[in-house]
Amino acid sequence: MTINWQDHHAYESEDWNLIPDWADHLASLDVKIAWDPGRHGAGNNLFFIINDIDGNWAELSAELEQLTYDRHVSIWPHGEKHRTCGDTDIFAARRII
Asked: From residue 59, how far is each of 3, 21, 62 by CA, in Å?
């Protein structure tokens, strides 16, 4: 069986100062934040995630790291990251067994 699934779609804000404005605007529309504001290790960008109207994750981020040819290459360790929202495991519905 093949399951077609996307993890999320992402949008970049001009700068971090607009991220709280977006969060306030979405809150005024009763859109809950699914993943609290944080900073990605890979990419070094500030972000938060909401569920869109279809239940997909939508990421709003700012200050995404720009890569150049002379940038030092580093290893980003992969491992399972777990994020819960209260008592709800927001990854549970996304696990493929």
From this structure: 22, 14, 10
C-alpha 11/C-alpha 14 separation (Å) is 10
List pLDDT tens digits, range 1-35: 566 677 788 899 988 888 888 888 998 999 888 88
Burial class of residue 47 (count of CB atoms within 10 Å of its CB; 0-12, 13-18, 19+): buried
- Beta strand pairing status for 88-89 and 33-39? unpaired
Triad 73, 79, 62: Cα angle to 5°: 60
Give the tens place of pLDDT for each residue, 27-69: 899 988 888 888 877 777 888 999 888 888 999 999 888 778 8
* Residue type present at position 4: N
For 40, other C-beta atoms within 10 Å of its C-beta total: 14
Quote the pTM value. 0.64
Residue reference for tokens 């290459």: 73
